[in-house]
Amino acid sequence: MKREIYQQILSMMHMYGSRDCLKTIALQFPGVTYNTLVSIYSQDYQKKTRKNHHKHHKPDVMETYYKRYLSGVSQDSGEPVLLRIAEEVDLSHSLLARIVLERHLSHTCYEGQNPPRGVVSQMMKDPLSLIEDKTLATEVHQCILNDPNYGPLVDNIKRSVGYEYELILRERLENRGIQFLGEDDLRSRGYDKTPDCKLEIPIAVDGCVINWIESKASFGDEYNHQTYLKDQFWSYWNRFGPGMVIYWFGFIDELDCNRERGIILKDDFPTDIITLESFLETS
Fold it and tell me: Looking at the UniProt record for this protein, which Gene Ontology cellular component terms does it annotate, in alphabetical order (predicted)?
């Protein structure tokens, strides 16, 4: 996807301001899959959340949200209080639920001190069982179920999708008879940062030698790609040489600019692979 098209899609998302716009945008860009639009929207939402994080996590603001929650449930209207507040303050449902849960624990269990993050995270994963206040437990549970962008449910879905595409990558390699080592194999050999697949024998794609392949079940935008380059891809290159990254939901074309340095980008498993065996047969 050209950067210009990506910017047009983002502009439309910002104009509509809601995830409900994706089907409309899909009609305007028939060459872009719905999964790609979902990934782009999710990434942009996360950027917005990171940008505004400090605004919602000031102690006085967090306490205000908690008091608004207490006031809302005291009216016993039967309406989901946290969902309404989240919409009013333009914050992820799950993130607001976490803030209110933290303040609740601080007031009821930790004598005004912040509760351990691990305790809060565990309760967010299973609120109905672990949160003693059943009203709050139900409110938090509703937030998690209704949040399409953040929270334990979304994290589980992302992990499942990521694992699914890793299996697809492994299946494609096995179907081509390409031998490889997985992450577990590499870690057992003492490697700390490992790609999804390290090829036993290099292959060639688009005239480039490939020693490893990384699977990303997402869209490759500027921010995430640069982060991956810094934290993962160049580390793989240092250890194993040149490799390939598959962004299954597409990427900004202009980001595929490191081929000469040893990292190429694809949006699917390539069909024009040259293996050593096939090269020797044609030589």
Answer: cytoplasm; nucleus
